[in-house]
UniProtKB/TrEMBL annotation:
Residues 24-79 are annotated as: Disordered. The lineage of its organism: Bacteria, Bacillati, Actinomycetota, Actinomycetes, Kitasatosporales. It comes from Streptomyces yangpuensis. Keywords: Signal. Residues 1-20 form the signal peptide. It comes from the Bacteria. This is DUF732 domain-containing protein.
Length: 224
């Protein structure tokens, strides 16, 4: 009886150890991912599994199928689908598999935009939804307003020679901070003036002579 109890205790301890390791890893992964606007009710694009096929914006470096051979095993591709696939399909890969990754990017943009357009715009700006630009252009033109907004924005982090103007952060996190510096390194402007509260919108005004704009915890910016 003692031997059985001891063995059971060892097995239980091992199981708890494995569970703890797994939990810690998941928590670290979650903390490492950039997040969309805090107010967003949409699914976090970063939590959506990436496609198993090559990323839609990662064109192959090796030989690709010529446009004349871009045909599915059954049916046919539309003109826009062929434009999307042109130069994107490795020689030995099924074009339909590559097309599917673009379609999935469209689905993610549409699903997120339906609930929170800021979250969708931010996901396109930051690249969380890979290949969104080409996918929207050729496969889901109804999402072009999201793409148009994203093309005017930029992600958080350092940015040299930014366009002057007023910008809005696509997050409502309370740890968003920003700073604009001149060529000599002097601080021209910074913010927010007071620590934001949950739900507050964070804006920034970039002076005309700004050499570098840097932000942290702000996810992405678009013109205000």
């Amino acid at each position: 009886m003692y031997r059985r109890s001891a063995a059971a205790a060892v097995l239980l301890a091992a199981a708890l150890t494995l569970t703890a390791c797994s939990s810690g890893g998941d928590e670290a992964d979650a903390q490492a991912k950039p997040k969309p606007p805090a107010s967003s009710a949409a699914p976090d694009p970063a939590d959506t599994p990436a496609p198993s096929a090559p990323a839609p914006d990662a064109k192959p470096t090796g030989p690709v199928l010529p446009d004349a051979k871009l045909t599915p095993k059954t049916g046919s591709f539309t003109a826009e689908e062929k434009k999307y696939l042109s130069g994107r399909v490795p020689e030995k890969m099924d074009p339909a598999a590559v097309l599917q990754t673009g379609q999935e990017a469209c689905q993610r943009v549409a699903r997120t935009a339906k609930r929170d357009k800021d979250a969708a715009t931010g996901a396109v700006i930051t690249g969380e939804i890979q290949g969104a630009k080409d996918a929207i252009t050729h496969l889901c033109p109804d999402q072009k307003p999201i793409l148009a907004a994203a093309e005017k924005g930029f992600p958080e982090g350092p940015r040299t020679s930014p366009a002057a103007g007023n910008y809005r952060a696509l997050t409502q996190a309370t740890n968003c901070t920003w700073e604009a510096k001149g060529k000599d390194g002097s601080v021209l402007a910074s913010g927010p003036e007071t620590p934001p509260k949950a739900g507050d919108k964070v804006t920034a005004t970039i002076p005309a002579n700004t050499a570098e704009f840097n932000s942290s915890g702000c996810y992405a910016w678009i013109p205000a």
